[in-house]
Amino acid sequence: MIDVSGGNTFKVNGTTISTEWSPGAVVTVEITQGPSGVQIDLDRAVNGTNNLSYTTNIVNALPATGVSLYCGGYTASPQDNVNYAIFLNNLQIIGDEHATLSFVSGTWNPSATGDYEFVLSRQGPVDDDVVLSSSNPDAVTVPATVSFESGSNQVAFFASVISLAEGEAVITASNVASGASDTFTVKPQTKELSISGPDKVWNGGSRYFKLVRSSASAVDAIVNLSSTDTDVLTVPATVEFDQEATVLYFEATGVDIGSATIKASNDDVDEVTVDVNVQEISAVGGADNAGNYTSETFINGANSGYGFGTWNIWNNPAALGDSTEGGGGNINSINGYSFRFMGDGSGEGDNNYANAKRYFVAPLEVGNVVSFTLTYNWDGGNRGVDIFDSEDAQFANAINVSAGNTFSVNGTTISTEWSPGAVVYVEFEQQASGVSVYLTRSVDGDVNLAYTTNIEHALPAGSISLYNGGYQDSRPEEELLNYAIFMNDLVLHGEIAAGLSFSKGTWDPAATGPYEFELTRVGAVGDDIVLTSDNQSSVTVPASVSFDSSSNTVSFNVTVVSLNAGDATIVASNVASGAWAEYTIRPQPSEDDENPPIESITFNAGTREFGFGLPAGYDLVSVEGAATTLVGGDWDWVELSEGTDYTVVDGAVVISVGAANGMIYRVNLQKQ
Fold it and tell me: In the sheet that 269-279 helps form, which strands lie side by side, from edge to edge?
């Protein structure tokens, strides 16, 4: 209606009507309600002299119900604040008085059954008799009527809360003669506790359980906990909710193999329980070791630790890095590194993805447990960990973090709470028909989320895959590491089936010659290993290699014989156990090698025919011949005919004795 701002600007409904300096101005305003809006008339005077009059109509379908004053947007020393104040007086309504009923007191959140006093007030021509009703009499009941005493404008009555578990109720008070009415919503606060969490705890370890109270006002913050067998499982004696919180997490510790029941209660609620089995976790069968990595060795094909296959890293680079950079939690290894996954900025738009997969040496057996620790920085994009089955199909999402602080497991959002520097511990166990997932999230060591779920799938888990990408930031000064995820402490518990893995090798040789490779075995793998290469024109291997009976690693040389003959996959297998592993080598041809050397030259003295071998990795396009006489500074090249002038036998070109334009020959090749 009126706005006064800098530059002596005086507005009505957004329209500037004056910029005249008017110190000590007194403004008189009159608002008249019309059928389709209001008319505003105002006058402004200084020292009793009017210097502005203005009238306007503002269209609005609904009638006015009140006025609002505001004052703000100033900067001044405290003693001068009064200079930015506004003052109001003589606020009045002229016209017929409206009939109104209103609740002036009552209890909206009762935490116990019983009677609660409510007070009604009337204004204007409201008769004495008022009708009362409840929208949910199973929760709250009220008298059918209540009456004002003559000469009084307030009346009290009692509403009865008969149940805390039947939901909310809306109380309506109405006067039939005048049409005046008002409502009051009552939301009974139930007194309940619930407890949930995993059905097992590892012996010597701990897991977190979730405790929920139905109401911060109805249920006391302090809750008593106990275990029915402290020789098996222990819990804190008491836990305490934060002032307005209704959820907390507490730790239970396994002491010995067996079963126990956790109990929770206080004076406000009935006791609730959860049954827990304490079990022995299997010995470590595989463990990655980031403490052994360096920035140069954490690459595709690297394998520090044991019980896993090599890394398969694709899209943009994955690297080692300090997990605390960018605001993540500290999960660094002893060398100050954890695995860092982030795009390098070379992608288009939001496609700066980084991915890394690690296979188990064999599909998980029932009871095998995989665990890892993860942290992340900002919440832009999507990042997380997928689980793949034994046929390399993704069937579960162990964790995903995305915009809006959205934290989900297998597509279900389990939290949108801002958790800067969160450290997430994830554990999944292979079941007969899927995996069970357990995770916690903590900030500065305090757990603020614990979650358990089962994901059904017919095939066992065969690998995990880390991904990071799908972000877009318009601020170039923000570093990519703000969108990174970090992972560490990748461990597999359980007896592992016989398995072979390449624990060392070079996947991208840039020169011919020997390269050292290393095999690692787990489980019942025999000493003798058969080696093969599917492309011996590119890479050759020994026919076999043998482990020393006291060692689980063995080294051997792989020989790159050509950089231009294409990829080669080498396979290592142990016949007795059936264990095998493969490793694909992709020799890197030199881009400057435009004139590959002839592999060999032959001459048949009897037939006087000579030939030459084609370079590996090239196809023959044509053969040309020329006489020795130069024509215009070059030889007169003529394309020769296969079968007449030359033949191709076993990758070698043989020139016929009677070939046209003999003496000088050249070949045109094309890379395969």
Answer: 200-202, 269-279, 258-266, 222-227, 238-240
State yes or no: pLDDT of 277 exceeds 60.
Answer: yes
Rounded-to-10 torsion of CA 61, 66, 71, 73: -30
Give 534-555 pLDDT, tens digit per residue.
999 899 999 999 999 878 889 9
List Cα–Cα distances, 406 to 25, 212, 323, 418, 426, in angstroms: 54, 21, 20, 9, 17
pLDDT of residue 349: 46
CA pair distance 257, 363, nearest whole angstrom:
28
Residue 520 has pLDDT above 80, yes or no: yes
The percent of residues in the chain predicted with pLDDT above 90, rounded, is: 50
SS3 sequence of 400-412:
EEECCCEEEECCE
Position 350 scores a pLDDT of 47
What is the 3-state secondary structure of 555-602?
A: EEEEEECCCCCCCEEEEEECCCCCCEEEEEECCCCCCCCCCCCCCCEE
Q: 360 has which bridge partners?
A: 308
Q: Cβ(530)–Cβ(572) under 8 Å?
A: yes
Helices (H) and strands (E) in the chain, counts: 0, 56
Handedness of CA 471, 477, 480, 481 (dihedral sign): negative
Question: Any residues with CB less than 8 A from the CB of 655 and at least 6 apart, and which?
Answer: 609, 610, 611, 623, 625, 645, 646, 662, 665
Token pair 């900067």: residue? 75
Q: What is the mean pLDDT of residues 272-290?
A: 91
pLDDT (tens digit, 9 = 90+) per residue, 92-107?
877 766 789 999 999 9
pTM attached to this predicted model: 0.59
Q: What is the pLDDT of residues 459-487, one digit of tens each?
A: 999 999 998 875 656 665 566 677 788 89
The pair of structure tokens assigned to 401 is 């973090």
Contact at 8 Å (CB) between 498 and 314? no
Task: Report whether pLDDT(315) > 90.
Answer: no
The rounded mean pLDDT for the chain is 87
Nearest Cα to Cα of residue 201 among 239, 232, 247 = 232
Give the number of C-alpha atoms closer than 13 A to the C-alpha of residue 138, restricted to the C-beta side.
4
Tell me the C-alpha distance between 8 and 16, whole Å. Answer: 10
- Would you state the torsion angle of the CA atoms of residues 642, 644, 649, 652, taken in this order, to the nearest 10 degrees? -70
Q: How many CA atoms lie within 13 A of 632 on its CB side?
A: 2
Q: Are strands 269-279 and 200-202 parallel, antiparallel or unpaired?
A: parallel
Q: Where are the alpha helices (DSSP H) in 25-100?
A: none
Helix (H, G, I), strand (E, B) or coil at 183: strand
* Gap between the Cα atoms of 109 and 185, Å rounded: 9
- 3-state SS record for 214-278: CCCCCCCCEEEEEECCCCCEECCCEEECCCCCCEEEEEEEECCCEEEEEEEEECCEEEEEEEEEE
CA distance 601 to 599: 7
pLDDT digits (tens, 9 = 90+) for 442-465: 999 999 999 999 999 999 999 999
